[in-house]
Amino acid sequence: MTTETIEKHAVPEGFEDAFVTPDTYQKLYDESISDPEGFWGREGKRLDWIEPYTRVKDTNFTFGDVSIKWYEDGILNASVNCVDRHLEKRADQTAIIFEPDDPKEPAQHITYAQLSENVNRMANVLLSQGIMRGDRVVIYLPMIPEAAYAMLACARIGAIHSIVFAGFSPDALANRINDCGAKVVITADTAPRGGRKTALKSNTDAALLHTSDRVRCLVVKHTGDQTTWVEGRDVDVKAQMKAASPECPPRPMNAEDPLFILYTSGSTGKPKGVVHSTGGYLVYAAMTHQYTFDYKDGDIFWCTADVGWVTGHSYIIYGPLANGATTLMFEGVPTWPDAGRMWEVCDKHKVTQFYTAPTAIRALMAKGPEFVEKHDLSTLRILGTVGEPINPEAWNWYNNHVGKGRCPIVDTWWQTETGGHLITPLPGATETKPGSATVPFFGVKPVVLDPESAKVQEGNPAEGVLCIGDSWPGQMRTVWGDHQRFMETYFQQYPGYYFTGDGCRRDEDGYYWITGRVDDVINVSGHRMGTAEVESALVAHDKVAEAAVVGYPHPVKGQGIYAYVTLMNGVEPTEELRKELETWVRSEIGPIAKPDLIQWTPGMPKTRSGKIMRRILRKIAENDYGSLGDTSTLAEPEVVDDLIENRMNRG
Ligand code: 6R9
């Protein structure tokens, strides 16, 4: 389908009272670009400040001098903004609805008063472990309320949290603990998901063999399953919380003090520790949550992401709680006990905004609409997607079967690095086109550049790499411990701009269509993965001589992982070895990194200077080998014939 044949969807009826309407969008957007100081100076007031800021924006995108500061002389505490300030009006309002993995278990409704008590108690537990302002705390927890308590407890005492997705392996966990120099890791005994359990504590035990032996381990006894216990190192969090005081004074923090670090994959080397600030990040998360989802008092907001990803940080915890919202936390998976679980939960808790990933929509679409039809979804007002481009088929299914044509769909484009939505429709203001993230959020200046000449593509339509022309408060501040890498990754290639790593097209109407990554990052079920990470896991196996990994189109996951592997001399390629390598990658990185296809190859297509020609590997993985382009620089052109003959994707 080309963009020209895609119809525009008008804003459905009933959104006349939305926070942002077509007129206000244009007016506010223009102001946000022409007077960022005035605009963001006003928006910053949505938070409670201990000391108000007098300076709003101090940002520089010049390579070599990159520096990003917002509200830099303001003093605040993020947990006060997410909890304490709501107590006067909302003490008995539900802050978090916890829906457990097993539908037979009762849901929990945690009020703001209870949230406050738990956060304070957890903060006191951290203090008693010697955690101080600026210390790093790694959180390796499933989707349980304690994850929210832990994040906000860190924020309360000025510690910097770094959540590691509970699906990551012990090695991945150890690397992150070491990179940020964490003093403690907070984990749980075991984590039920989809009726199966992950042994988080034993993963943590394995990880801690590769870290400093001073790292303490705080364990949430969630299921009560038996685990090993290391005296002097392991701490029973729930028992300690019970004994701790329910009051812990919040630490006044500078707006630019880091709130959290979140590791994300890049095109080269090991994952980067993306650093987010306390003030600017929270302003941006709260504002985008309010406007993009038109969040109003009484709404029940459900973001299905995991807190281990940035979407969980901004739209399960920080944005909603800063707005005094009711946010739903779901421990389970979309397809267990059956493909109706999401809709059952929407029905049960009267969800008003539902925010998920295209890969989940495609997986549920494949099971048929009967699972949706069984449930009453009449409370839904707004539907959202995030993580990867959504194909128009999935968009239409979501719109017709879930939204019944009455819910605007907000296709939100953003990144771990951006803290919140950058390009997105606003439900009461933006006409939508299936597959397009539409128009920029306030204060966001998208720029399309020619990838080779770096020339700005003026006018519509346009196509090229997507950059952003100026800073916004939710922007990442640095890479933890490596500001140089921050500058090189995002500000070197296209001087003066923030480079997103995505390609895009801007159509006749000025709508943006994200076409996917232009670097060696692949997007598997909405999870970002550096191909280099999977490659280094593969070559760490003693039977592997060389490996190259690329993405290929996958009907449900968006992209699948295609690995080309050259074995050590004398090693026989067998089915058994294929399985062994799959298990190996799972254990090195985590289940999400397991290759979908492994092709054995006697050698890689290389230039004479020894560079692997990934363009060719990508084409063959896409089953598009008729148009390999210029292969004249190949050192051994015959390798390509073998690769084509033995290709694994013939779909
Ligand atoms: C929030 C998140 C970021 C990358 C990004 C892009 C892709 C995210 C998208 C989208 C098209 C959307 N992406 N949202 N592509 N349409 N609505 O996903 O962060 O994990 O850092 O991934 O995901 O390629 O560059 P992160």
TrEMBL record:
Its EC number is 6.2.1.1. Keywords: Acetylation, ATP-binding, Ligase, Magnesium, Metal-binding, Nucleotide-binding. GO terms for molecular function: acetate-CoA ligase activity. The modification N6-acetyllysine is found at residue 611. ATP binds at residues 387-389, 411-416, 502, 517, 528. NCBIfam families: Ac_CoA_lig_AcsA (TIGR02188), PRK00174.1 (NF001208). This is Acetyl-coenzyme A synthetase. It comes from Paracoccus fistulariae.
